[in-house]
Design brief:
Two copies of one chain form a homodimer.
Chain A: E1 3-4, H1 7-27, E2 33-39, H2 43-59, E3 62-68, H3 74-85, E4 92-95, H4 105-111, H5 123-131, H6 140-151, E5 160-164, H7 171-180, E6 184-188, H8 195-200, E7 204-207, E8 225-228, E9 232-233, E10 239-240, H9 245-248, E11 254-255, H10 266-280
Parallel strand pairs in A: 1-11, 2-3, 2-4, 5-6, 5-7, 7-8, 8-11
Antiparallel strand pairs in A: 9-10
Helix pairs in contact in A: 1-10, 2-10, 6-7, 6-10
């Protein structure tokens, strides 16, 4: 029976740290604040926003919404971003993407100040992840994976780690963050030959394949730590991960469930980034 | 007896391609030109510069030197860079580093236009390598490794590749470039446990450990392709790589010698980047 690496335990500990940081900032007269720029009313965006603002409220972080119509012009959007960029009271900015097709998303990302880029989408943040420096912020999902490992005291140093998936949002940054923690890192993907044998040799596996249940017991071996980044809806309409949990669980040492694993940590990571951004203004 | 992957063969083929590109640009009235910014007279810089300018001459690429005294002020250096940045006749810029300590190197790199960053030092270039896009240019050394693989028709797709070293100049970009070519990539480093057994499993090995002869026959196995990035001086004062060539050569299928391997390709890669930068101005 594998140990469950539970997002709620990680989040609870992370929230306590964030609250302490917020209290510390309050003593210095600083109130962390998130600026949310949303174009249109896409249900996914609205739902994520609700989660984020609720978490902000719980943790004592303020937020301000900048809601723009779906047919906003590039000029209006850029003007809004410039205002939020230059507002010293706003420490972090979340911009929902993809933007409607008539807008130049690359130009928006380029204009976003890296020091306020709490979602890790700017070049500055990406270089920070690639170089292993504190420039900008890593994307929230791979950071949530690291929070889980750290919370459960899993030391990556010298471990054989395999990352399944090479996306710019999860796979590649997760690999760089594991490397920063001194793991020996292998990146697998759709072109990998005999992936089961490659994954089987790992001590630590981060799965971000983007397909339900693709990693099953053929890929896994005793003693492994498995972090499942996938969020999919299976044939019965239930949430499930990229790992076949029922088959994996009897084999491995520890595993994150879906739901209740990585996904449940990302919102606190985002809010934590806002607080960190506020702290950095003091440096 | 391993096949030797010879830099001079790669360079010869690369030079022909570059010359054809230069001729093509000439028809469109474009003369590719490299701007070289050098502060002081460090012998290593002067020697590299001589190699680069000679190669430019051979390939029909013009160059212009901007030589500044070792005690140049930040303002003067930035003014020079701005001039070169904004000179439409100059397509690529090489800035020798490290700069003298009184100068703010980060500010200089930040000011350099990514589209002229033929040495791959800006954030824009690094994101290009990390994301696998054509933004900026990769650093010349890992690009030279890829040129060698490509020249000898070594298809990376699905291959198990191991990169020894995780520097921002070689190891990490080489790993990303192999990933872009669909290899399954493992990154090893000083904290890797039992590195010989990890490297032994690879089909393709890029060694950028930065220490003479650390990879020997204990790390290697038959059938492997080995690319040695190291340039070291051994106890007898001779140039040698990070691979113990005498011990490796009888084991592996193909290997780059040192000298005469990767290092001999980088200068043409740099000049090739200048020509590519000139071509991109037409897009």
């Amino acid at each position: 029976m594998a140990k469950q690496l539970l997002g709620k335990e990680v989040t609870a500990a992370l929230n306590e740290r964030i609250k302490a940081d917020v209290a510390g900032l309050a003593e210095k007269g600083i109130q962390p604040r998130l600026g949310i720029i949303r174009v249109g009313e896409r249900p996914d965006d609205v739902s994520y926003e609700r989660g984020a603002t609720k978490r902000c409220e719980t943790l004592g972080v303020e937020y301000e919404k900048f809601l723009l119509p779906a047919d906003v012009t590039q000029e209006e959007l850029m003007a809004t971003l410039e205002k939020v960029n230059n507002d010293d009271k706003i420490h972090g900015i979340l911009i929902f993407r993809p933007l409607p097709k008539h807008l130049d998303e690359a130009a928006v990302i380029k204009a976003l100040k890296p020091e306020k880029d709490v979602d890790g989408i700017t070049d500055g943040s990406m270089v920070g992840v690639f170089a292993g420096t504190k420039q900008g912020f890593p994307p929230c999902t791979p950071q949530a994976c690291m929070e889980i490992l750290d919370h459960y005291g899993i030391d990556c140093k010298g471990k054989k780690a395999v990352v399944v998936g090479r996306s710019l949002v999860v796979g590649k940054p997760a690999a760089m963050m594991l490397l920063q923690r001194h793991a020996t890192v292998t990146i697998c993907h759709t072109r990998t030959v005999d992936m089961p044998s490659v994954v089987k040799e790992a001590e630590l596996v981060i799965v971000a394949a983007g397909r339900a249940g693709v990693v099953d017991d053929r890929y896994l071996s005793p003693g492994q730590i498995v972090v499942d980044v996938g969020i999919n809806v299976n044939e019965e309409g239930k949430l499930c991960g990229d790992v076949d949990y029922a088959k994996a669980e009897p084999v491995v040492e520890a595993i994150t469930p879906v739901p209740g694993g990585v996904g449940s940590v990302t919102t606190s990571v985002l809010v934590g980034h806002v607080v960190e951004a506020a702290k950095r203004t003091l440096e």
